[in-house]
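Quiz preparation item.
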């Protein structure tokens, strides 16, 4: 059991040395193979078929609609593609999804989406039936580009009568019940796929899309002959984008040597609705990093190492240490965070140094684990010498060091430097419209 700051830092970082990452990568690759083999399997990652076969060519033109549902906000967008100037313009509206709505039912949630879309059309004078791409960032078992059943909710969504039902049909039913004009839904898209498509519009070497934000997931372009479980028409295509749902890696023990007592402590709390699942995601994504740090701090407080053994009411509460604080602290704002946001007093320079070390260790582990996932995908495709990876998400964009630590770990595992990381601009919005545009060609 880790009892000193050094012990705690080691507990986070020793499993993610280069050798550790190689072992993790081997296990993840085995899970990929299991998931691609057949529809029903006992593997940890689902490897869902997206039915998206091609990247944008850059020749797409016209107006398209996009819906983006994946968290606390929902967006409606109109995207205009201009192939002559390789230009994308957009207008969009954002709507807040309340906690009550997340936990309501099918009619209320999808009714809200349908009403928001209808209002957006009215406000922007859209009277024609534009092709629409729907980014739905939850695990979906797709059977075609326009049909897919919700496997289970994530991200605190609990709306009743949705799991096991077709996402596109639920939206159409809600729209029909309210007598709204029919919508031409041509693509159901995961946010990772949208992320890949958004960069793929200008880079044909973009074969991977990664989300590193509140949650984490990845997709990539796979050879169709490697997807044994694909039951569609193989004569028209030779590749397909696979939504890995890699956040569930570790759910059956593949990461047991990486999990610390602090991961277990936060994951066993009653407030964590998906305890024991999404293990890889919980070690990487922004939703959970603050809780991991908080539990490490509480251990040191109880041992008299931090703050003279005295905690605060804020720090004792679930999510009392926000994940955004890791970024603030690594920017040098530790004293302000601990005193003014966590209600701790007194705070010494030594306290700040110790907390900074813990934050650095937790975010470094996250970045290195993400790197191992990316390298696994690149190797799976055999594209070590040339591959663009599109990345989106608040953790990657806002944490001051995450991207550099992830890049360093990728370089350790793939010294040839063939992997190019590009930040995706609005993959879940623009990307969905681009999938719709490709589908209509």
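Solution:
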């Amino acid at each position: 059991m880790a009892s000193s700051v050094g012990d705690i830092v080691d507990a986070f970082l020793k499993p993610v040395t280069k050798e550790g990452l190689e072992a993790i990568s081997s296990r993840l690759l085995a899970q990929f193979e299991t998931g691609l083999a057949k529809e029903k399997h006992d593997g940890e990652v689902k490897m869902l078929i997206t039915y998206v076969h091609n990247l944008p060519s850059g020749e797409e033109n016209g107006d398209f609609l996009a819906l983006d549902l994946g968290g606390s906000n929902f967006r409606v967008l109109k995207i205009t593609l201009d192939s002559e100037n390789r230009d994308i313009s957009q207008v969009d509206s954002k709507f807040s999804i309340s906690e009550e709505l997340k936990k309501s039912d099918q009619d209320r949630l999808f009714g809200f989406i349908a009403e928001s879309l209808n209002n957006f059309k009215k406000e922007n004078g859209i009277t024609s039936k534009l092709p629409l791409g729907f980014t739905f960032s939850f695990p979906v078992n797709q059977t075609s580009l326009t049909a897919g059943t919700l496997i289970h909710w994530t991200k605190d969504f609990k709306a009743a009568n949705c799991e096991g039902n077709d996402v596109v049909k639920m939206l159409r039913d809600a729209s029909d019940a309210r007598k709204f004009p029919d919508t031409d839904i041509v693509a159901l898209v995961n946010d990772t796929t949208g992320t890949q498509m958004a960069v793929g519009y200008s880079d044909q070497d973009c074969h991977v899309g990664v989300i590193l934000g509140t949650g984490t997931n990845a997709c990539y372009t796979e050879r169709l002959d490697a997807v044994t479980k694909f039951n569609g028409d193989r004569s028209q295509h030779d590749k397909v984008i696979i939504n890995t749902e890699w956040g569930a890696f570790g759910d059956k023990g593949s990461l047991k040597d990486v999990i610390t007592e602090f991961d277990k402590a936060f994951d066993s709390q009653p407030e964590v609705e998906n305890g024991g699942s999404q293990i890889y995601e919980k070690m990487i994504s922004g939703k959970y990093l603050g809780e991991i740090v908080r539990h490490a701090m509480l251990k040191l407080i109880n041992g008299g190492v931090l703050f003279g053994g005295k905690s605060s009411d804020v720090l004792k509460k679930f999510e009392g240490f926000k994940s955004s604080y890791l970024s603030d602290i690594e920017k040098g704002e530790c004293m302000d965070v601990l005193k003014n946001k966590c209600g701790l007093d007194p705070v010494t320079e030594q306290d700040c140094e110790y907390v900074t070390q813990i934050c650095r260790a937790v975010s470094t582990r996250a970045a290195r684990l993400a790197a191992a996932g990316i390298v696994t995908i690149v190797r799976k495709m055999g594209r070590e010498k040339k591959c663009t990876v599109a990345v989106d998400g608040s953790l990657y964009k806002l944490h001051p060091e995450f991207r550099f630590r992830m890049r360093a770990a990728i370089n350790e595992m793939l010294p040839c430097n063939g992997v190019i990381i590009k930040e995706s601009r609005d993959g879940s919005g623009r990307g969905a419209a681009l999938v719709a545009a490709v589908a209509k060609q």
